[in-house]
Amino acid sequence: MKLKIYVTLKNGVLDPQGKAIHHALESLDFKGVQDVRAGKLIELTVDDNIADADIEAMCEKLLANTVIENYAIEKVADSAVQETA
Asked: Does this entry carry the keyword ATP-binding (predicted)?
């Protein structure tokens, strides 16, 4: 089974990377972007029978700093995963 773990900064936590991206988009003359928040995507391939509690524990103990970050878990069917260039 494939998992996608989305890790984002909590509201109220400063996001210098997001600010830099926003500034770069403005300097490239892209209009209409109001705010940018940067995060990370972690893709895992795990056994089909892995417990949801184990997945949560991975996120809590290693993949996300839960003091300043939120995370969301998405289970993806193996055939649904596509890569883009």
From this structure: yes
Mean pLDDT, range 55-71, rounded to an integer: 98
Contacts of 18 (CB under 8 A, 6+ apart): 9, 35, 36, 37, 38
Percent of residues in the chain assigned helix, strand, coil, to nearest 5: 30, 25, 40
**Pairwise CA distance, residues 64 & 71, whole Å:** 7
Give the C-alpha separation, 63 to 65, whole Å: 7
Which CATH number does 2-80 carry?
A: 3.30.1280.10
Residue 8 token pair: 């984002």
Domain ranges in the chain are 2-80
